[in-house]
Design goal:
By secondary structure, the chain is an alpha/beta fold. It has helices at residues 42-50, 88-98, 103-116, 132-144, 162-179, 190-196, 224-229, 233-251; strands at residues 2-9, 19-26, 31-35, 57-62, 73-76, 150-154, 182-186, 199-203, 210-215. Residues 2-230 form the ABC transporter domain.
């Protein structure tokens, strides 16, 4: 469905590339997590797929659900970015309005998306009346209402408390599995990647390259408790931490590459 071929990116007025030689294939319906040190170019990969920027070198090939070379994508950020003067329902309708979806169809799809994230009774409220977790649910509903081929998630749960984050992670997994939505997730949380992803792409420090792709063996249907109890969870977690340690050290001189594993993810 998506293929990065020797992709590199250098921003204007800079000489150092953000990434170089990225080769990655993502299959339809797959959930792939990108993990790496801060500033290594994970979000740039999402922006390339969203069409917000262009690759400097290489190619990105896509195949949409209708067999075209275009993907209908939705982007969900760490900050919900809800419009404070619009109700929750009208926030969810916003992307549909921009796409020219007629009023009745727009309202139907927005209501269905709110029901998916368990906010159907809060559509007439305004963002300031919602908790942080509810605001992020609304942002996710706004993306789902577009019925995307591709869901791009840039640390969508990073600002939430651990309890809320765990519930939303499981809700997200249930939704994308139900609809077969191809999903690309940027995260700094190894546990989140292991809970949600089919594969985890471990990225190096700048210029970013793919250091290793880890296949997650927990099956497509999973829950947080079952993943934490799986005998391969701790070894995989350790493997990914050790892959990341020298990359984090390269991007942050306060981290020692050879230090023992004492930090919690």
């Amino acid at each position: 469905m998506i293929a990065f071929r020797d992709v590199g990116k250098t921003y204007p007025k800079t000489t150092a590339p953000v990434m170089t030689g990225v080769d990655l294939e993502i299959q339809r319906g797959e959930l792939v997590a990108l993990i790496g040190p801060s500033g290594c170019g994970k979000s740039t990969l999402l922006n390339l797929l969203a069409g917000l920027t262009d690759a400097t070198t290489g190619t990105i090939d896509v195949a949409g659900s209708a067999g075209t070379d275009e993907l209908r994508s939705a982007y969900v950020f760490q900050n919900p970015r809800l419009l404070p003067w619009r109700s929750v329902l009208r926030n969810v309708e916003f992307g549909l309005e921009q796409a020219g979806v007629p009023g009745a169809e727009r309202r139907r799809r927005a209501n269905e998306a709110l029901e998916l994230v368990h906010l159907h009774e809060h559509g007439d409220k305004y963002p300031h009346q919602l908790s942080g977790g509810m605001q992020q649910r609304a942002a996710l509903a706004r993306g789902l209402a577009l019925e995307p081929d591709l869901l791009l998630l840039d640390e969508p749960f990073g600002a939430l408390d651990a309890l809320t984050r765990g519930y939303l992670q499981e809700e997200l997994l249930s939704i994308v599995r139900r609809f077969g939505t191809t999903t690309l997730l940027v995260t700094h949380d190894i546990d989140e990647a292991l809970l949600l992803a089919d594969r985890i792409v471990v990225m190096s420090s700048r210029p970013a390259r793919i250091k290793r792709v880890v296949t997650v063996p927990f099956g497509r249907e999973r829950a947080l408790d079952s993943v934490l109890a799986h005998p391969q969870f701790v070894p995989l977690r350790h493997e990914i931490r050790e892959l990341l340690r020298p990359e984090v050290a390269a991007s942050d001189p306060t981290v020692e590459a050879g230090a023992p594993e004492v930090l919690s993810s």
